[in-house]
Amino acid sequence: MSDGTDTPSELVRAAASAGLDVVAITDHDTTAGWEEAVGALPSGLTLIRGAELSCVSTAGNGRPISVHLLAYLFDPQAPALVEEQRRLRVERRERLQRMAVRMAADGLPIDPDEVMASLPADGAAGRPHLARALVEAGLVSTVSEAFDKYLGSGGSYYLRRADTPVKRAIAMIADAGGVAVLAHPWAYSRGPTVADDVIVELAEAGLSGVEVDHPDHDPGTRERLRKLAAELDLLTTGSSDYHGANKPTPIGAETTDPEVYERLVARANGRTPVRG
Ligand code: AMP
Question: In terms of residue numbers, what domain contains 26?
Fold first, then answer.
């Protein structure tokens, strides 16, 4: 329901086919896919309902940077979270439209109206939607190339969003009974990342874990992050960040240790895992 290409039903079926026993659905800034995913859950597969919240942090040098926060097993009706997700979805649409208009004004083969019409009705818009439009227009051959040339955080068409201050998001997730895990904290290829000190501060603010095993983390990065997490007593998760055809990583390429999974589930009291 955001920037992946599978529907929620296709996602859970793909997870089962890949041999997973647990999968999380974590659309950007929406829980609109939960119901469909539960309805389509193949037998034997457990679903963790979650979302990936768009947040802003300082990098450690005072500069604002975008960070993503994975929220698992929270109450999707918690008022503060509902309102903030709604605001972010509006913000995402407006930002995408501004980016599309700028690209069209520069002569790129983008029709802003067509892009806006292609967005998921109840979902969250993201740069991959623009990237796909550029692929379909034949200007680039992959979504990654569109990011490298036009849409990356250093690219000429990148625009910031007014995201949620990350400590506020951690508090909102806790109030909704969920568990907060910092997504791919050191994915350097995507732009500036948070310093160690910031992760220390977030741990003090109630962060439960960090995503260590992620396609954008190389082995050295994983090792350093695992060490920091151990010092801070943070859970360390693994996930593929599967986006269907929008990214080359297959579903199930990265996984979370079962013991860590059990600890994560034990911390949540907003929603329970659903077993198919
Ligand atoms: P946005 O939420 O609009 O800022 O876009 C972020 C989304 O773009 C996330 O789903 C990322 O996984 C995806 N993304 C970021 N960099 C790349 C890239 N180089 N190739 C493909 N997808 C990317």
Answer: 8-89+164-275
215 lines ligand 1 (CB under 6 A): no
Atom of ligand 1 nearest to the CA of 241: 12
CATH number for position 46: 3.20.20.140
Looking from the CA of residue 152, the nearest atom of ligand 1 is: 16
Q: Ligand 1 mean position to 223 CA, how many Å?
A: 24
Ligand 1 and 28: CB distance under 6 A: yes
Is 73 domain-assigned? yes
* 56: enclosing H helix or E strand: strand 46-58
68 touches ligand 1 (CB under 6 Å):
no
pTM, 2 dp: 0.96
How many domains, the chain?
A: 1
Per-residue pLDDT of the chain (276 residues; tens, 9 = 90+): 999 999 999 999 999 999 999 999 999 999 999 999 999 999 999 999 999 999 999 998 888 999 999 999 999 999 999 999 999 999 999 999 999 999 999 999 999 999 999 998 888 999 999 999 999 999 999 999 999 999 998 889 999 999 999 999 999 999 999 999 999 999 998 889 999 999 999 999 999 999 999 999 999 999 999 999 999 999 999 999 999 999 999 999 999 999 999 999 999 999 999 999
The alpha carbon of 39 is separated from its chain's Cα centroid by a whole number of angstroms, namely 22
- Is the distance from the beta carbon of residue 271 to the nearest atom of ligand 1 less than 6 Å? no
Q: Is residue 80 part of a domain?
A: yes
Pocket test for ligand 1, best of 65, 149, 247 (most atoms within 8 A of CB): 247
Query: Per the domain annotation, does 22 fall within a domain?
Result: yes
Q: How far apart are CA 54 and CA 237, in angstroms?
A: 19
Ligand 1 atom at minimum distance from 124 CA: 2
SS3 at position 101? helix
Token pair listed for 172: 């909102």
* Within-domain flag for 51: yes
Count helices and strands in the chain by DSSP H and E runs:
10, 8
Q: HSE (CB half, 13 Å, CA atoms) of 251?
A: 22
